[in-house]
Design goal:
Elements: E1 2-3, H1 7-18, H2 26-31, E2 44-50, H3 57-60, E3 70-75, H4 79-87, E4 95-99, H5 100-110, E5 115-124, E6 131-133, E7 149-152, H6 158-171, E8 179-182, H7 189-192, E9 207-210, H8 217-222, E10 228-230, H9 236-239, E11 246-247, H10 252-263, E12 268-275, H11 276-281, H12 285-311, H13 317-328, H14 341-353
Parallel strand pairs: 2-3, 2-4, 7-8, 7-10, 8-9
Antiparallel strand pairs: 1-2, 4-12, 5-12, 6-10, 6-11
């Protein structure tokens, strides 16, 4: 964050220098300033990072203005890297995409408060598609996973927490019903980055073992060392088209649509986090960021509606977009706390029920207070 003279700093300095509000802390004084006040004189520059998803790409292309400040947006090497940078690293960015479960764990277990969430969710993803098996494994249904060895490159990532919760709720399979085998290598680190500390938390009471050193999760499955895989991305062998690895849910799209229709949940993987000190000193920034991310998403949706079908390489892109809106609603990728309350409550419940955090947590506590009321235009 780079900041020069601004009206807030002038007010703060003048008031304190005159002794008018000497008993007030800087935070209390600034909190009285309206978030909607004119910000033309506020010379603030912020540094941001995230993946360059189509719904975020307007930031990278500088087609979005953040009211009240200028910015630089840096493409990240992976969510694990972003998590580590924020939790244990140099905290190089004022605004960062962050894993929802790693943040919950850092907040609840480590009392992490350096960053605060805004109800902006760059990545949501259904996770039935993320369960892989061998065709000859004898596993035909989700219930067949009970008592089996499940390989994964970690344990407490957002994706794996959602998979375990979904299996518990929909199929009655508890994490205790499975032996977890942790791979020493992850074949998807080129897209996800190196796993952060919060993605390697193992609760008490579950069966954990470690796979053969040097083998990634694909190799564990293909060699028969595990019976199935849970994987946030797609295992290397699957991407390469190896016939020895397939999805458990062959028609995962149909199953995931049925899951959404039944539960109303579109699983949140990542959120946007802002340095708490920055929000305290520049209270207006939270709404400016929310509006900018919402505008970027709207630009992407407008493109999908008008020209996406022509520019994309998928022949039935337009039909897929229309079908998704029919199943999930026009704004199926909603931002805002209230429109995602059910999903946020569910992931906080999973974190506690699976032993990843010691006490239940209210999802409202994770977010900047004024942002709880934000909604898209």
């Amino acid at each position: 964050m780079k900041k020069h003279s601004s009206r807030r700093n002038f007010i703060k300095t003048t008031a304190l220098g005159a002794g008018v509000v000497s008993s007030l802390s800087s935070f209390n004084l600034l909190s009285k300033l309206s978030e909607s006040e004119d910000m033309k004189n506020n010379d603030l520059h912020i540094y941001m990072t995230g993946y360059d998803y189509p719904r975020i790409k307007a930031f990278f292309d500088k087609k979005i203005t953040i009211n009240g400040c200028t910015y630089d947006m840096t493409k990240s090497g992976g969510i694990g890297d972003m998590n580590t940078n924020a939790f244990e690293g140099p905290q190089s960015f004022d605004v960062s995409e962050i894993g929802i479960i790693p943040y919950i764990l850092a907040y609840a277990n480590d009392k992490f408060r350096d960053y605060t969430l805004l109800p902006i969710f760059p990545l949501k993803m259904f996770r039935h598609k993320s369960i892989f098996i061998r065709p000859d494994s004898g596993i035909k249904t989700a219930q067949d996973l009970k008592g089996k060895k499940i390989g994964s490159p970690g344990y407490s990532s957002s994706s794996l927490t959602w998979i375990r919760g979904m299996l518990q709720d929909e199929y009655g399979i508890s994490p205790n019903d499975i032996e977890w085998v942790i791979a020493s290598k992850d074949s998807s680190t080129d897209v996800s980055g190196k796993a952060s500390k919060q993605e390697k938390v193992f609760p008490d009471g579950i069966r954990i073992s470690y796979g053969t050193p040097g083998k990634d999760e694909s190799e564990l499955l293909l060699s028969g060392e595990v019976d199935a895989l849970f994987h946030a991305a797609q295992p290397k062998a699957f991407v390469q088209g190896n016939p020895g690895i397939v999805r458990l849910f062959e028609d995962s799209k149909k199953v995931e649509q049925e899951y959404f229709t039944k539960t109303g949940i579109f699983p949140i993987m990542h959120a946007v986090a802002v340095k708490t000190s920055l929000l305290e000193s520049q209270a207006w920034l939270a709404k400016s960021l929310f509006d900018a991310y919402a505008e970027s998403k709207e630009m992407n949706f407008a493109f999908m509606t008008k020209l996406g079908w022509a520019y994309d390489s998928l022949p039935w892109y337009g039909q897929e977009f229309e079908e998704t809106k029919k199943v999930m609603g026009a704004n199926y990728w909603s931002y805002g706390f209230e429109s995602n309350r059910l999903t946020l409550e569910k992931i906080c419940t999973y974190a506690y029920d699976q032993g990843l955090i010691k006490k239940p947590i209210d999802p409202e506590d994770l977010f900047y207070k004024s942002s709880l009321s934000y909604s898209e235009k």
